[in-house]
Amino acid sequence: MTENYQHILALVFAVKEINENAKILPNITLGFNIYDSHLNARWTYQSALQLISPKNKPFPNYNCDLQDSLVALIEGLYSEISYEIPSIFNAYRIPQFLYASAPIIKDETQFLTTYQMTPNESHQYKGILQLLLHFKWTWIAFFAADAANLEWFKKFMFPMFSQSGICFSFMDSFTNLGYLSDRGRYWIWQQEIFDKIMDTTANVLVFNGDTRSMFVLRNLLDIPAYFHTAQKAKGKVWIFTAQMVFKWYSGPRACDIEILQGALSIGMHTRELPGFRQFLLDRNPYRNKEDGFIRDFWTDVFGCAFPESLPRSEGKDVCTGEERLESLPAHYFPRSVTGHSYSIYNAVYAVAHALHVMYSSTSESRAKMEGRRGRILDHHPWKLHHFLKHVSFNNSAGDMVSFHQNGELIGASDVINWVTFPNQSFFRVKVGKMDPQVPSNECLTVNEDAIAWHRSFNQVQPISLCNEHCRSGFSKKVKEGEPFCCYDCIPCPEGEISSHSDMDSCFKCPDDEYPNKERNRCMAKTVSFLSYEEPLGISLVIGALFFSLVTLLMLGTFMKHHDTPIVRANNRDLSYALLFSLLLCFLSALLFIGRPHKVVCLLRQTAFGIIFSVVVSCVLAKTFTVIVAFMATKPGSRMRKWVGKKVAITIVLSCSLIQALICALWLAMYPPFPDADMHSVIEEMVLQCNEGSPAMFYCALGYMGFLAIASFWVAFLARKLPDSFNEAKFITFSMLVFCSVWLTFVPTYLSTKGKYTVAVEIFSILASSAGLLVFIFSPKCYMILLWPELNHREQLSRRNQRRHFFPIVADSGPNPNLRRNRQAKRPVLYSVHSWD
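The structure corresponding to this sequence follows.
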């Protein structure tokens, strides 16, 4: 892996700068040993034991070499070994710097001497979560290199992701799918994983692993090249943790990496180090002979061979040393400092600054430094930890380097976008930054325009959802048995809205607003009441005034002909009272039209109830007078004493007084008041009079109905009494209309809404009053105005066989006058049974 050569050079460059800087560790020279782990656990353990043993002798704890004092260890291991190696050095309290992998900490006591130069797992996942939320990716898949990482993620990170609205298509690991169990099925195993990844509907896959995992992944994604029947690779957005980086490595066959185009990763923050680029380009195998790695590197990247190896490398050009490193592709030899190289550079400087502070802290330390250099750290390497935990400095790039008390590097992380090309080359682009020290909603900044997505997305930001967004006007309904990110979209119920997409539930508008047709916005309600300006109000006003005028004309006619038999029949004063009450009924309808006010609301129902009670009481009194008058004509009848004005007045006053008491109690206890009905009509705010107590309203209405039914029943019994001026028939018809109107009023009143409720009551008042007016008084006015010659007592006396109280039956026998009158189509009067 040629990129790893830059890590070595970063170490060399940092040590070279420190040794040449007189301000840091004067007269002290730093040195280093480099061990290649080869991704092999056995070799790594062997190298670790050599560091604490005499040279070429594997005897830990017996190192007596005063010149090679082990100051610190800088590790770039894969996750399994990086968890085990610290346990070896922990007993010696030797500082260890991890730059390539931040292991999962199971026992914090094992990592007391460890300093993490990379963001730990928790911080990385918090950054990944912010990245998912930024792009609104809620449907993802998770893959881990090993089962331990997977279980740790499920236990500690999964709840945080779920609470933020992220759910998973699947969560799995290589080891769970048989990576280590059956190497004989290796290619079949790879195809199964490939199918699992490509079959998921999630367009975003979060991958946790290390350098070794990247090798496996790159081979894994090259399955279509090996199995021509395998399904084609689909474009996905890969999100890698910091330790998973692209590396070019030489081999018999380069894997196709185009499928990883557009991948994102949370990497170590880097800045260009002054002089480091030129230091890299100046490397040469003939000038830097002390470099034990440069020849292997040179032969790999330039494909040449050195003279001493030519017999074994036939067909290759000779490495002349004139080859130019700047001509190499960036993925062979990156000239910009990588995250791992930057971490190594900072780790070396952290050790140097801590040593410098420790040596300079006391005069005793200075004396020891001058007298017996090298012996102090040989016996007391653990003293360095105190200074490392408090070290703080600016590196040559201007970045602050310091550690938390738990040994984690304080600093930001970069968001890296990996751009690949068909020739298997690639480069990394910084597209954002994640700073864990600022509030979580501001910790991530991303330049979306700088991101290159996979070609299958046509450079449009990918979408990763379990299903389409629920647009405004709809709410989410979770599918049973599915993750909460998978849901159906259902329309908001009547009267509710959802103003944004993907809302969990709809909500009601404020009382003075209503939902629009799309149910995604609240609109202001219009103020509504039955006004004089609208057609319905004008029609009702005209009707009320018209019947009022008719009533006045009839009252004037009766008063003008007050001495005629027709007017005097059936109690003239009751007729006047009834006409005047009907006039007030028609005019009371006007109280229901217009904007409600406090006084109007107090008068509306009470005035209507009392006036109508007077009207019905007058009708009842008139009907009672008819029956009493007929019964009083019988010889020896005791009913004569009930004939007269006093009885009629008593009936009217007593019946009306009861209704007046009901209304007075209503006003005293539950007075009506102006109110606004926000709920009856969705789009309107209806101004109305609140009745205060619906029970009192229906009580007053019920009492009026009781009087009406009583009047109707009495009139019905008296309808066939043989009397010329018998009003019982007309009263029966009028009360039938009256009762019919008010019986239909109740269901209609309850079923209508808004201002039409008031219109129904006005119509009922006008219709019932008009029925009484027309059926009781129009026949009399017809006789008075069109047949005045019959409205004389003398005329009636000649035609009647009996006077006053003895009625003559209409069909008692042949009557030539009746025949002539019928032929003339004139009304015939037979007798008058009651005079006022």
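The radius of gyration is 53 Å.
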